[in-house]
Amino acid sequence: MSDLDLADQVTRQLLALTRLVKRSEAAPDEPMCLPLLAMLAEDGPFRAGEIAAVLGVNPSTVSRQVAGLIRSGLVERRADPEDGRVSPLAVTAAGRRILDLGRRRRAAQFGDALAGWSPEARARFADLLGCFVRDLRQAGSLPAK
């Protein structure tokens, strides 16, 4: 298989996976901003401008999403002890509960999808996917976070 064919095939599969994940995140009990919430929980707190830079999106888009998460009580602004002019954003306990519910639902979905796979194949798949994402980042194709 040529590099061009490989890139086409991987791109098609990643797009299909992205659509499936987005559809699954559209559950009525979860906010549409789940990826932003997860980023804050895993790597935060962040200022809104930092989030926009990492995600490569317009700051106004992040501001709208953050405002919705704050209104929902899933994210809060915190005082920055080093610079009182900025307010880093952090996930609240309610936000962590939403993330945990989503995590458990995905685990059930993935478990169902991979039910016919051996434990070794499941582990190998997760390892290879992780290696691919890491190497793609190192090649300069994806943001670091």
TrEMBL record:
Transcription found in the keyword field: yes
Annotated Pfam families: MarR_2
Keyword field contains DNA-binding: yes
Alphabetic keyword roster: DNA-binding, Transcription, Transcription regulation
A GO molecular-function descriptor: DNA-binding transcription factor activity
Xref: CDD domains: HTH_ARSR
Domain HTH marR-type stretches: 1-134
Alphabetized InterPro entries for the sequence: ArsR-like_HTH (IPR011991), HTH-type_Bedaq_tolerance (IPR052526), HTH_MarR-typ (IPR000835), Tscrpt_reg_MarR-type_CS (IPR023187), WH-like_DNA-bd_sf (IPR036388), WH_DNA-bd_sf (IPR036390)
SMART domains, A to Z: HTH_MARR
Origin: domain of life: Bacteria
Protein name: DNA-binding transcriptional regulator, MarR family
Organism from which the protein derives: Amycolatopsis rubida
